[in-house]
Structures are given as C-alpha cells and as structure tokens.
C-alpha cells in the first residue's frame, strides 16, 4: 500500500437520493462495498456531492448499524447505554480507550497471523464475552469515579449553595446552645 496522501484516498460521493458514487471506478457502490474498503484497509473519504461535507463517519456508523442487525451484535444494550453515558465529560477518555483496545486486538491478530476470516471470527467469538465483561467493569469503575468526583464537588458547592441552608440550621442550633 502506498503512503497516505490526498491522491491515495478514494473519493466516494453521496448524492441526495442516498446513492454512493465511487469516483475511482466511476460506478455506484453500496455500503457493503464501503465495508469491503474498510476490511481491505483502502483509504477512502465519503463526501456530500452537493456541499462537499465529509460524511465518512456517518457512513461508517451506518455500516456498524447494519452489521449489528445481522447475526450476533458486538454491542449489547447495556454496553450501548454505557457508551451513551460517556458522552460529555468523559467522551474523549472512552474514545481513546476504545481506539487503543481495538488497535490492540488488531495487533494481536497481526502477530498471531490470523489472516483467515474464519479463524478471526472464532477468535473474536471466544473473546467477546471477556471483552464485554472488561468493558462493563471499566464503565462501572469510571462511573464510581465520576460519582465520587461529583460527591466531592458537592461538598465544596454545598458551602455556598442549597446545601448551606440545611447545614446552617444544624449550625445555628449548635451556636445557640
């Protein structure tokens, strides 16, 4: 594969009628074709044909959504809920964690020489419950950290906020005695 550069990136245009057009082959393609580009590690970019807006992430999410509907999904309902909970203050941390985790799995695949899709599929099916459990534990630990942090800041915000009224009443009774 050649070095990554603008000329190496395959341009896919998405038209208002939802059709995808591969400018390299001058033909319409499907999401399955784009999935194959991902699998074969061919660099590409999907843009809106009218505005030029980059739609690559949106298309990739559509491919994931379709794949999740076929067969056994990677993301359980609880896992998806956990991911949704991370949007906000911990969003970057989870994204980085997931990216590094997936890269580690890819590295293991490469090092082990698991080139056949059947062997890779079997490997991943064996690892999926363990990976889901690790992610669940990670999400739970992060949730506890987040709640502990909120509780800590709740103590400090209580000094001048709504919590001050209730502690003031207790303090007033102590001062009157």
From TrEMBL:
Coiled coil: none annotated. It comes from Azotobacter bryophylli. The lineage of its organism: Bacteria, Pseudomonadati, Pseudomonadota, Gammaproteobacteria, Pseudomonadales. InterPro entries: PHA_DNA-bd_N, PHA_reg_PhaR, PHB_accumulat. Residues 75-111 form the PHB accumulation regulatory domain. This is Polyhydroxyalkanoate synthesis repressor PhaR. Residues 11-70 form the PHA accumulation regulator DNA-binding N-terminal domain. Signal peptide: none annotated. It holds the Pfam family PHB_acc.
């Amino acid at each position: 594969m050649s070095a990554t550069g603008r000329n190496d990136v395959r341009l896919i245009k998405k038209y208002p009628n939802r059709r995808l057009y591969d400018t390299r082959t001058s033909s319409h393609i499907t999401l399955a074709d784009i999935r194959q580009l991902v699998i074969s590690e061919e660099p590409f970019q999907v843009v809106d044909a009218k505005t030029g807006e980059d739609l690559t992430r949106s298309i990739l999410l559509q491919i994931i959504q379709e794949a999740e509907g076929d067969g056994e999904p990677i993301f359980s309902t609880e896992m998806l809920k956990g991911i949704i909970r991370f949007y906000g203050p911990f969003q970057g941390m989870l994204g980085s964690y997931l990216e590094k985790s997936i890269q580690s799995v890819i590295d293991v695949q490469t090092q082990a020489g698991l080139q056949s899709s059947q062997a890779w599929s079997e490997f991943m099916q064996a690892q999926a419950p363990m990976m889901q459990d690790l992610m669940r534990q990670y999400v739970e630990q992060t949730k506890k950290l987040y709640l502990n942090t909120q509780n800590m800041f709740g103590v400090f915000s209580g000094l001048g906020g709504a919590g001050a009224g209730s502690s003031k009443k207790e303090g007033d009774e102590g001062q009157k005695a």
